[in-house]
Description:
The complex is a heterodimer of chains A (362) and B (244).
Chain A: H1 4-8, H2 20-31, H3 38-55, H4 58-82, H5 92-109, H6 114-136, H7 145-165, E1 181-183, E2 186-188, H8 192-213, H9 216-226, H10 228-234, H11 238-264, H12 274-287, H13 292-312, H14 317-331, H15 343-347, H16 354-361
Antiparallel strand pairs in A: 1-2
Helix pairs in contact in A: 4-8, 4-11, 4-12, 4-13, 5-6, 5-11, 6-11, 9-10, 12-13, 13-14
Chain B: E1 4-13, E2 16-26, E3 31-35, H1 42-50, E4 57-62, E5 65-66, H2 72-78, E6 80-83, H3 95-103, H4 109-113, H5 116-131, H6 147-160, E7 165-169, H7 177-187, E8 195-199, H8 203-209, E9 212-217, E10 220-226, H9 227-232, H10 234-243
Parallel strand pairs in B: 3-8, 3-9, 6-7, 7-8
Antiparallel strand pairs in B: 1-2, 1-4, 4-5, 9-10
Helix pairs in contact in B: 3-5, 3-6, 5-6
Amino acid sequence: xxxxxxxxxxxxxxxxxxxxxxxxxxxxxxxxxxxxxxxxxxxxxxxxxxxxxxxxxxxxxxxxxxxxxxxxxxxxxxxxxxxxxxxxxxxxxxxxxxxxxxxxxxxxxxxxxxxxxxxxxxxxxxxxxxxxxxxxxxxxxxxxxxxxxxxxxxxxxxxxxxxxxxxxxxxxxxxxxxxxxxxxxxxxxxxxxxxxxxxxxxxxxxxxxxxxxxxxxxxxxxxxxxxxxxxxxxxxxxxxxxxxxxxxxxxxxxxxxxxxxxxxxxxxxxxxxxxxxxxxxxxxxxxxxxxxxxxxxxxxxxxxxxxxxxxxxxxxxxxxxxxxxxxxxxxxxxxxxxxxxxxxxxxxxxxxxxxxxxxxxx
Amino acid sequence: xxxxxxxxxxxxxxxxxxxxxxxxxxxxxxxxxxxxxxxxxxxxxxxxxxxxxxxxxxxxxxxxxxxxxxxxxxxxxxxxxxxxxxxxxxxxxxxxxxxxxxxxxxxxxxxxxxxxxxxxxxxxxxxxxxxxxxxxxxxxxxxxxxxxxxxxxxxxxxxxxxxxxxxxxxxxxxxxxxxxxxxxxxxxxxxxxxxxxxxxxxxxxxxxxxxxxxxxxxxxxxxxxxxxxxxxxxxxxxxxxxxx
Lengths: 362, 244
């Protein structure tokens, strides 16, 4: 490819005419070579996750299972915030509602089959998110980011209080001693088996999300995230795009919530509340929003650090963790992943490459 | 019947009256220039036409439909397109993806999710890029383009959806003389299928490509007519002399 057209129009430096917020983009894209680092990171993370239970003590495997489930939860937030720019501060609403839903399924109907639990949890998260999106996002005109974040946060707060005051939902104690999840006649208790189940589900959700985000729907989302007004002027139904991705995010949070309920063996009000919602924001910001692997890495590192710090610095560990989080968010606003991942590759490509199109045509 | 008819458009921001009963009529296949001193309300009028601002008063009709209350999305789907004053190409995307993003705006959700449109639109993307002399940069990031090229990319994006009316807010801002000349050339073929409203400071440029002009001053229409009529108009000469 020749660069003739650029010389004919002068070699004016692009950076001097572009707004400051965009200069970062340019330097990063200039640095990013042809080499792709994302697949390398993904495979490395996968290998570590696959062998971990073989190396870890059993009680740490249980902890690691919880981390995997939280990774799923982080993916749900990453999808809505990192990919669609919807600042949901109430993502736990869908996580917790699904958790409570499947807990009731187990308590009141004595059903614990994975083939009932996961679909129900997914459905609860999806429907709840769709309803909330209808209320918060589907106005005739775009709703402000403050309205949406406060709206979602209020939802989580209210659900937390309502569950705490409901006798049917067990009040502040939640719903204890949920039976083990079953696959056929096999009862799945915590440990390596549950770990690998969570890992398989995480991989499936991860790959589906990646398929979605790398499709042309993902291209529309990239446009949405970068300049919402601009793509509305192209004729995109921006609010619909947002509602769809929000509902998908809700569904993923629902899967996570139902796994979490059965893994812990009980559900309680915190699962619905604002603290849980904020935690997932931290995971994603720490690892790197707008990349799926960033959400996974962020969750694993934050949770891993908490585990290690709370063991070794019993009194001051939350302060150390807080300072670390602040430092990352201050100096790497795109998260830890941005240390190795250039902007160009983060944004990536969408749909089949033009080369594949040409091959298909010929 | 004109393609676009705006009548009695007023826009008040707090105590500032940006537009005070402005009117504008544009026919099919007409290139219409909007000129006037700084602060005369040109950009505000464009925004009211495109739906980026809601006029305090007045009515906008487009292709026999009252679109005053339409959202930008609805206006775009009715055949109106806007290029912003500030370049807003998506810098991290390739030129190819920028154009595709504009082209596929009205595709169905399933087509998008399964990337069915990409194969279908490939030739069209390359044609648009070719028309704006950007084909050899198709797979570079838009951020790597010169300012002038970014403006062309934007115009190409604005034209992608086959609009019947294109609104251009200062398309040649920050361009070199040569780039301006080329921009004029690039816009000419559009006339066969599209009308144009163009806000521009460069009077030579606007004189060369426009059929009719409307002059705004302090939110009101000072004069409207053919280029020759406007050039002969005493009031218009006065405000431009006053400014100079």
